[in-house]
Amino acid sequence: AILDTLAVSSQVEVNFRDAKTQEAELDFLRHQGKLNSMAKAANEKMAAANSLLAEICEVITEGNEEAVEYNKKQIVLGEQLLRMTRVIASPSNNTKRIQSNSDRMTEILERATSDAERLELA
What we know:
- By secondary structure, the protein is mostly helical.
- It has 2 helices and no strands.
- It is rod-shaped, with a radius of gyration of 36 Å.
């Protein structure tokens, strides 16, 4: 804008004004290009972060679905226990249940040990 108002009286001054105008436009375009490159780099990082967040959301959703299913089963079990009869409570059933609980404790301990080792490595 300043260069447009420059009073020129010779072809040399016209050429100077036009060259300076082009120089200013090129400076602006270079500056704008740098900003665009920076914005592109930031957008790429944001896209990567969003992908990771989407994966995290999937893991959380799976955990929530598993919790819902677990709670549904616990509700049914609670209703059954409220109506429990002596047929369910027998020495044979208790022996089976105790062995099942022991097996499940072993599985849980193995998973907890594995998780603890992974946390120590992180």
